[in-house]
Request: fold
Amino acid sequence: MSSNPESAMTLQMPKLEWTDEYAIGISTFDNQHKVLFEFINDLRDIMMSKRTNLKAVDKTFLSILDYTLTHFLEEEIFLYKISYPNFNRHKKDHDNFIREVKDLYVRFKAGEGGNRIICAEITAILTEWIQGHIMKDDLEYAKFASENGVSL
Amino acid sequence: MAPKNEITVEWQEDYSTGIAKLDEQHKTIISYLNEFNALAMSDDKRAISAILIKLLGYTLTHFLDEEISMYAARYTEFEKHRNEHNRFFFELRSLYIKFEGGNNSRLVCAEIASTLKEWFITHISDTDKKYGPFLASLEP
Ligand SMILES: [Fe+2]
Ligand SMILES: [Fe+2]
Ligand SMILES: [Fe+2]
Reply:
């Protein structure tokens, strides 16, 4: 039986499951959020397998970064067009997320801290951020859009 | 290859960091800049959009490669350098949003052209050059 901190960390990390709570009502963005959930779950699965395949982690990590970048821009362009009052704050939240994911990727590639630990950290941070961001910040712009009768 | 004109940026030996892989990436960035400049004053919004997306993606990958090397080498200026990358990348994102979401893409394109040229040339020939000797001493 192993009681190392890594397996304790992964046990605490439930799979992201899409439920209606996450729906913001703009289908393009809801679908993109679902794809992000899947990517993050992929990363979690790779990480939880007995022998972590670092190549697969790398590939999935880059896909997440790439997909996130495009998704953020699509949201931001929409928010800019509809003159969303909290545009700056929303964009800044996205920027901060990019900053954080970049740093994690750099640490991962530089082989820091035993890769299983950093992989667990990555999955935990991504999971937590995306849940919070969708349910609070994305929902807020969707509400503004619907109140003002604007759609994508 | 984009046609040459007065805003064409050319690679110079003086830009070399001494790290072949990163120099090659800088040359690619410069070729994207020139591609953008050649299109910037046209009405081909789709083509401009495509090159900007390409530039955004490539810039991020390049920044990551530099940051990984600097971090792994425990380069003393790592944080400062990374912050410079981040600030620029976030600004480039803003400019792209303005280009796509605003209604004066000509004006934004002119702003993007000067920002790109000014930032990349200064950054490559100054900030990047500084990591050269440091990383070169660790090259296999
Ligand atoms: Fe968002
Ligand atoms: Fe560079
Ligand atoms: Fe740099």
User: Anything to note?
Assistant: The domain at 27-146 of chain A is CATH 1.20.120.50 (Four Helix Bundle (Hemerythrin (Met), subunit A)). The pocket of fe (ii) ion (ligand 2) is lined by residues B 26, 62, 66, 124, 128 (CB under 6 Å). Chain A has a mean pLDDT of 89. Residues 115-147 of chain A form the longest helix (33 residues).
